[in-house]
Design brief:
746 residues, alpha/beta, seven-stranded mixed beta sheet, six-stranded parallel beta sheet, 21 helices, 26 strands, EC 1.16.1.8, S-adenosyl-L-methionine, amino-acid biosynthesis, flavoprotein
Length: 746
């Protein structure tokens, strides 16, 4: 009898901020628990895998960044598979499944995943499972959970068909056999298409997802053996149990209902109590739960005795980042404005940055001192905050491709780790909550955490964790018996990311300087977080520049060199969001609020170009700007009016959403920038479609960018007498020609 060989799969990922990587690692870990050999690689690690010779099922998880761009670590892979020299059967041997992560608040939803998927299909590769499009705009879990649930049955079928003896065919018929095999595999899992398409999920679809999940849990598909090859295709179904203490902690399971654990709070009538982060009601509180696998721990953490070295309070200089002084800061809004906008001017004369208008800069910011202190107290480690951390991998860890986080410098102190390395405000993922279950003593709290990470509790997770953006501190406040070890936080909290801000200046007008502007983000108090708070970076920057802040109508006080604040910044170039090289092309800029920032740089540069080239005929320039009130938050008002006065800006169209038009007491004119666009539809469509102009949009992705896009479609359809589909195609062509460009954020 031949030796049994474990079946193998290959898991690839492309990730910008770690989300896709985390999902891929979870797939690899679960594959190992299910009796498979799982190799996991980043798509950038081309020396570790070879798709040209790969015969095992391949699972690809990839995110999208920027304006539909691949993650940085996927750029080379995308470029490689897009080579025009590759034949149409280059990957005819390859079977794969792909999960694309994206956000429908942005125009090019899941564009990187769609690009890879489409190109692999063009090169002959075949799906063994339907592609999933997970939308972070509404919650990745809505697609991610059912996609992962169905993945294992699809892998089992793929392995079974790949290991089964194939009928002999003529050599010339090999390609047909491959197509038939994997097209049938894709058909086998077609039920999941309901939840995998990027349209918003309906109640009916969610109900069908639950039915599919129950059907799979109750199925009794046996393991399939392939005697000729000696390999065994394991049973990849989830295990259903009622007592989690009798199962391996790394197996997914069904937890029996705990009716007696959760009820209404003592002394509170049932009719008055409401479900919350810590409290649930039937049917959830009485349901059996499908909870995810327990992520395998992989780090050992040792805190060494405090040294004489003092904590510097500043980050270790990261590659590409430079410490630069703030030369000036000004408040651009009045005291009674709803939002507070600040302008920050950096002195980069000692650290020249070759930036262009349209580029942005990344700003390193720390976690708030008060939050770091509270977390240290909650972990019982305040007296060891100056101890150095030593990290090592557990020798017996079951985590695939476990690595010590590269973003944690050696010999970091505990306080430095929590201040500069970990994103302690990051929204809790279900895998993290699942791990926290094991650190919780009180039975009611444990049950509630199980509910929040379960399939049945997805609605509660979205309502009480994802939507209010709860982090680890919020959860620890709500669940007092939860006592996680430090190692768990390091394993699950992502890297503290720098925050990007658009450059609001031009080197041609302000040599040696770089300006940026931001609103101080305010998060109001909510039930899950009783105390309101400021945005992490905007709140920190506001505190940092407060001693030198220039208020409207006041003279700036002189400051000594010792009081000059400094920030760590890195240039982030945007090679597409740039002024056209042809100065005669018209420009249409749409940027309400702080979205006007890059256009200040555009206009400063265009003003200098006009001064240097008086004989050149420049194209028209239009700016559509919007704010609430003329006298409270009209950003860069004097500078914009100056551009109009000297001819740099041909048309300035401003709408005030909360002010009635001049000379009236009620609103009758345009309220938002898209309304102003519609008033000038003929001019704008003529500039775009007949004079080959360029259109730029900067600002809020969730509402403004979508509304502007809808207005553009309406304008093009009306002016050119096209139907909606043809208008959409016209806009798509503008995008392809890089004449409809966006710099938007959520």
């Amino acid at each position: 009898m031949p030796c049994e060989v474990k079946p193998r799969i290959l898991v690839l990922y492309g990730s910008q901020k770690g989300q896709a990587q985390s999902i891929a690692e979870g797939i690899a870990d679960e594959a190992e628990e299910k009796g498979l050999i799982a190799e996991i690689c980043c798509v950038s690690e081309g020396d570790k895998f070879n798709l040209e010779k790969e015969r095992a099922p391949v699972v690809i998880v990839v995110s999208t960044t920027g304006d539909g761009d691949p993650p940085d670590n996927a750029l080379k892979f995308v470029k490689r598979i897009k080579k025009k020299t590759l034949s149409s059967d280059h990957y005819a041997h390859l079977c794969y499944a792909l999960l694309a992560l994206g956000d429908t608040n942005y125009a090019n939803f899941c564009n990187c995943g769609k690009t890879i998927d489409g190109r692999l299909q063009e090169l002959g590769a075949k799906h063994f499972y339907a592609t999933g499009y997970a939308d972070d705009g509404v919650g990745l879990e809505l697609v991610l959970d059912p996609w992962l649930e169905g993945l294992w049955e699809a892998i089992r079928r793929a392995l079974s068909k790949m290991s089964a003896p194939q009928p002999k065919r003529d050599v010339t018929d090999t390609r047909v056999s491959s197509e038939e095999t994997f097209e049938s595999l894709a058909t086998d899992v077609s039920l999941h298409l309901l939840s995998l398409e990027p349209e918003p999920a309906s109640t009916e679809c969610l109900g069908k997802q639950e039915e599919i999940g129950r059907a799979k849990t109750e199925s009794t598909t046996p393991a399939v053996k392939a005697s000729e090859t000696g390999s065994t295709v394991p049973d990849l179904r989830p295990v259903s149990v009622t007592d989690t203490t009798q199962t391996s902690p790394n197996r997914s399971c069904v937890i029996a209902d705990h009716k007696s654990v959760l009820g209404t709070p003592s002394g509170v009538p049932a009719a008055v109590a409401e479900a919350s982060l810590t409290l649930s009601f039937p049917p959830l509180s009485e349901s059996a739960l499908n909870v995810p696998n327990l992520p395998p721990p992989y780090l050992d953490v040792v805190l060494q005795e405090a040294t004489t070295r003092e904590e510097t309070g500043v980050p270790v200089m990261k590659e590409g980042f430079q410490e630069v002084p703030v030369s000036r800061s000004a408040k651009l809004t009045s005291d009674d404005s709803v939002k507070t906008a600040l302008l920050v001017e950096l002195d980069i004369s000692a650290h020249p940055m070759d930036y262009q208008p349209g580029d942005s800069l990344d700003v390193l910011c720390p976690n708030r001192v008060s939050e770091v202190g509270e977390l240290l107290l909650r972990l019982g480690l305040m007296d060891r905050k100056s101890h150095c951390i030593q990290l090592s991998l557990q020798k017996d860890t079951k985590k695939k491709a476990a690595q010590i986080p590269s973003y944690i410098p050696e010999n970091s102190t505990l306080q430095y780790l929590l201040t500069w390395c970990l994103e302690i405000r990051s929204v809790l993922k279900k895998a993290f909550i699942r791990s926290l279950v094991e650190c919780t003593e009180e039975s009611g709290e444990k049950r509630r955490l199980q509910e929040l990470c379960s399939k049945q509790g997805s609605a509660d997770y979205n309502l009480y964790v994802r939507d209010p953006r709860l982090g680890i501190l919020d959860l620890l406040r709500a669940f007092p018996s939860c006592q996680p070890p430090l190692s768990l936080l390091i394993e699950h909290l992502p890297k503290l990311q720098p925050r990007p801000y658009s450059a609001a200046s031009s080197r041609m007008r302000h040599p040696g300087q770089l300006h940026f502007v931001f609103n101080i983000i305010e998060f109001p108090a909510c039930i899950e977080r009783p105390g309101g708070r400021r945005g992490l970076c905007t709140g920190w920057l506001s505190d940092l520049v407060d001693p030198i802040l220039l208020h409207p109508g006041k003279v700036q006080s002189s400051s000594t060199s010792s009081s000059v604040p400094k920030v760590h910044v890195s240039l982030r170039q945007n090679c597409s969001f740039r002024l056209p090289s042809d100065l005669s092309k018209p420009l249409i800029m749409i940027g309400p609020g702080t979205g006007v920032a890059p256009f200040i740089g555009f206009l400063q540069q265009r003003e200098k170009e006009r001064e240097d080239n008086p004989e050149v005929v420049f194209g028209e320039t239009w700016l559509f700007f919007g704010c609430r009130h003329r006298d409270r938050d009209f950003l860069f008002r004097e500078e914009l009016q100056g551009f109009v006065g000297n001819g740099t800006l041909t048309h300035l169209k401003v709408c005030f959403s909360r002010d009635p038009p001049e000379g009236t007491e009620t609103r009758t004119g345009p309220r938002y920038v898209q309304h102003d666009l519609l008033l000038h539809a003929k001019d704008i469509t003529n500039l775009l479609l007949r004079e080959n102009g360029y259109l730029y949009v900067c600002g809020d992705a969730k509402n403004m960018a979508k509304d502007v896009n809808d207005a553009l479609m309406e304008m093009i359809a009306a002016e050119l007498q096209l139907d909606k589909l043809e208008a959409m195609k016209a806009l798509a062509r503008l995008r392809e020609e890089k004449r409809y460009l966006q710099d938007i954020w959520n």
